[in-house]
């Protein structure tokens, strides 16, 4: 974490600080050094690029000298042969210059795009390694913008820094050499005008850099808003609460900021160009006056003056570029820095270097085949609190800045939780809302690590296991099972890409969803819609169960749906669950009476502690919190039959 200040964007209440300060982030030290490894793979291409650039710059500086010569030695003395000879040479040089420019463009594009590709792929892989906490805190739009806009900006650092600087410097030197060769007096006069170009560029350029950074942040905020509102869940919420006008106002406000900063950037850029244009025209007038007088006095040939003036115009281009180069490079380096910020984020849940593979069987029967047994899950005095912003993400990716820093001494969500979920058995978690049931299940696949205590699977501390082997052995089905915007088939194959058609059908059948899929016109090739919105909640959960069955993990973590289902769907889910949980060590946040009755062990969670444990009958008898919850929820709903909840 860098602890930088990020301007506060509006919250849902629509409040927005209109006069917030522009971001004044500075480049972190070491950024340039860190770029080197990214450029290294392109060093030969870069060398070629430099060579071609050198040739192009040489040709460009030589051409005006030829102009002067054709006038003084061909046109003025009226020697036709010399004129034709020079004209042909000029044409040849022009062709050569076009050729070098083309090669240069290709090289530069190849290097630039290659760099964008490398950075994006690395950043994407790195983001995937982040813990769940990172994703719960980060605004997707802001993150996507880092991988889109900033990566492109970063690429410019390399092309601008290397290609343009080399060309500019070289042209500058060669033009000066040519000028001194033709007339050292005029060359010195030209040099004296240069500071008039540099100072305005320096002052205005600094402002341009700040504006560019602000533009990036504002664009990311505008993008985040669209990202949140343009998905089904967001769009539904906007419609249900009739907030279209407010949404439009919010968007207008953000778009207006992008516009305003855009106007300021454009005006600043134009002012810079204008000042430089003015200075160079004034210098040209000076040169024309002094040079013209020398020609009139016969001290100077007219061709030499033409060559000098052409060279002068060529001098100001590079000088201008060179003076604004630090700004351009700085702007681009800022992008690199912003990408590095993401790459520097340490995943909160990381694999130890000496981590071992977890070897477990797919089911209880697997032990007999020598594949290892279905493992037990053990929580030993596990305490946990959710990490705060500073521990998991970048403030600039959260977008909403907090009025006061988050306290790090937040109360524990889980407090010394200890239990054993026996191998191949069903352990049910029940308790009031917010008790910590979901949190317990999140610690099993290491979405988070406990603050203290140990979670063990098959006797191994899960922090000693490789993340892949751990997660391979756990199947998780949440209440709102997520499906990717693709076909049912693609969603199922996500669990096991090599599954055959009969295996897919078998899994769907076992999850009691095959009849429905078979009745769809496109069958398994039906698109599920954004986040699976074309399927009902129960259907989505059954597809998720089919996906889990294809994965065939020895451990299942399940959050039962709380929604009331009709008796046919309820029966289907019930039977699908039975198949999914058989012979597996399962931890189920149970909402259904039938699941709770089937459970080998019920853990009653309250206020982050396990307050009661036992079977349904034993707990009812004890007359504690469980009996209380049961009375309130189940007895009341007993007449309704299926789907009562106990949370
Ligand atoms: N990502 C998070 N960051 C911070 N606090 C969280 C986070 N997720 C949950 N909490 C808090 O942790 C506590 C326990 O939440 P948890 O989701 O585990 O409860 P639960 O028992 O599963 O509740 P429910 O039955 O309503 O789903 C709650 O007070 C909740 O506000």
Short account of what is shown:
This is ABC transporter ATP-binding protein. With about 650 residues, the protein is an alpha/beta fold. Among the domains are: about 325 residues, ABC transporter type 1, transmembrane domain (ABC transporter transmembrane region fold, Up-down Bundle); about 70 residues, Rossmann fold (3-Layer(aba) Sandwich).
Structural features, described:
Residues 13-22 have a biased composition (Basic and acidic residues). Belongs to the ABC transporter superfamily. Lipid exporter (TC 3.A.1.106) family. With 647 residues, the protein is an alpha/beta fold. Among the domains are: 31-344, ABC transporter transmembrane region fold, CATH 1.20.1560; 481-552, 3-Layer(aba) Sandwich (Rossmann fold), CATH 3.40.50. Helix content is 60%, strand content 9%. It has 21 helices and 10 strands. Strands 6-7-8-3-9-10 form a 6-stranded mixed β-sheet, sandwiched between helices. A 4-stranded antiparallel β-sheet has the order 2-1-4-5, covered by helices on one side. The longest helix has 53 residues, at 244-296. The chain is elongated, with a radius of gyration of 35 Å. Mean pLDDT is 80; it is low at 1-25, 363-371 and 639-647. The chain binds adenosine-5'-triphosphate (ATP). The site of adenosine-5'-triphosphate has 12 residues, from α12. Adenosine-5'-triphosphate is lined by residues 136, 386, 413, 431, 433-439, 647.
């Amino acid at each position: 974490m860098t602890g930088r200040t990020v301007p506060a964007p509006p919250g849902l209440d629509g409040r927005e600080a209109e006069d917030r300060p522009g971001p004044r982030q500075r480049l972190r030290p070491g950024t340039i050094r860190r770029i080197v490894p990214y450029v290294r793979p392109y060093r030969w291409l870069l060398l070629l690029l430099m060579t071609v650039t050198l040739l192009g710059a040489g040709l460009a500086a030589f051409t005006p000298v030829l102009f002067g010569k054709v006038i003084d030695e061909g046109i003025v003395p009226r020697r036709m042969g010399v004129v034709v000879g020079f004209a042909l040479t000029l044409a040849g040089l022009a062709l050569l210059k076009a050729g070098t420019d083309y090669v240069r463009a290709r090289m530069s594009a190849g290097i630039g795009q290659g760099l964008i590709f490398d950075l994006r792929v690395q950043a994407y892989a790195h983001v995937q390694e982040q813990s769940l906490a990172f994703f719960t805190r980060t605004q997707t739009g802001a993150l996507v913008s880092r991988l889109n806009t900033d990566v492109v900006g970063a690429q410019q650092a390399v092309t601008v820094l290397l290609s343009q600087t080399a060309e500019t410097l070289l042209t500058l030197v060669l033009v000066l050499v040519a000028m001194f060769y033709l007339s050292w007096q005029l060359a010195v006069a030209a040099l004296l005008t240069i500071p008039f170009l540099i100072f305005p560029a320096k002052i205005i350029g600094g402002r341009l850099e700040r504006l560019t950074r602000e533009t990036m942040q504002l664009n990311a905020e505008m993008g985040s808003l669209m990202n949140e509102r343009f998905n089904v869940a967001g769009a539904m919420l906007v419609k249900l609460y009739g907030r279209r006008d407010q949404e439009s106002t919010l968007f207008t406000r953000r778009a207006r900021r992008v516009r305003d900063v855009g106007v300021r950037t454009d005006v600043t850029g134009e002012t810079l160009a204008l000042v430089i244009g003015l200075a160079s025209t004034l210098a040209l007038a000076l040169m024309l006056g002094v040079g013209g007088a020398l020609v009139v006095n016969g001290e100077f040939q007219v061709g030499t003056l033409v060559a000098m003036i052409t060279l002068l115009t060529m001098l100001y281009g590079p000088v201008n570029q060179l003076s604004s180069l630090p700004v351009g490079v700085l702007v681009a380096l800022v992008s690199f820095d912003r990408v590095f910020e993401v790459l520097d984020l340490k995943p909160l849940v990381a694999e130890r270097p000496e981590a071992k593979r977890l070897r477990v069987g797919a089911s209880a029967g697997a032990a007999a085949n020598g594949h290892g047994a279905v493992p037990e899950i053990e929580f030993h005095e596990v305490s946990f609190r959710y990490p705060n912003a500073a521990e998991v993400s970048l403030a600039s990716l959260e977008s909403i800045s907090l009025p006061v820093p988050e306290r790090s001494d937040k109360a524990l969500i889980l407090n010394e939780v200890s239990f054993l979920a026996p191998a191949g058995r069903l352990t049910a978690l029940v308790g009031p809302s917010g008790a910590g049931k979901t949190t317990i299940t999140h610690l099993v696949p290491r979405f988070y690590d406990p603050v203290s205590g140990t979670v063990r699977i098959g006797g191994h501390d899960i922090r000693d296991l490789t993340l892949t082997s751990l997660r391979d052995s756990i199947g998780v089905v949440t209440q709102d099972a997520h499906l990717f915007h693709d076909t049912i088939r693609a969603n199922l194959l996500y669990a096991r890409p090599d599954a055959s058609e009969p295996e897919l059908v078998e899994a769907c059948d076992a999850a009691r969803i095959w009849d429905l899929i078979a009745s769809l016109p496109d069958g398994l090739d039906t698109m599920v819609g954004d986040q699976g919105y074309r399927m009902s909640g129960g259907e989505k959960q059954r597809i998720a169960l089919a996906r889990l069955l294809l994965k065939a993990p020895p451990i299942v973590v399940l959050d039962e749906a709380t929604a009331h289902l009709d008796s046919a769907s309820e029966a289907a889910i019930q039977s699908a669950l039975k198949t999914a949980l058989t012979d597996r060590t399962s931890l189920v946040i149970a909402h259904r009476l039938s699941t709770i009755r089937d459970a080998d062990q019920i853990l009653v969670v309250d206020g982050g502690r396990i307050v009661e444990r036992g079977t349904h009958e034993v707990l009812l008898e004890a007359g504690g919190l469980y009996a209380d919850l049961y009375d309130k929820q189940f007895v009341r709903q007993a007449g309704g039959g299926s789907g009562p909840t106990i949370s």
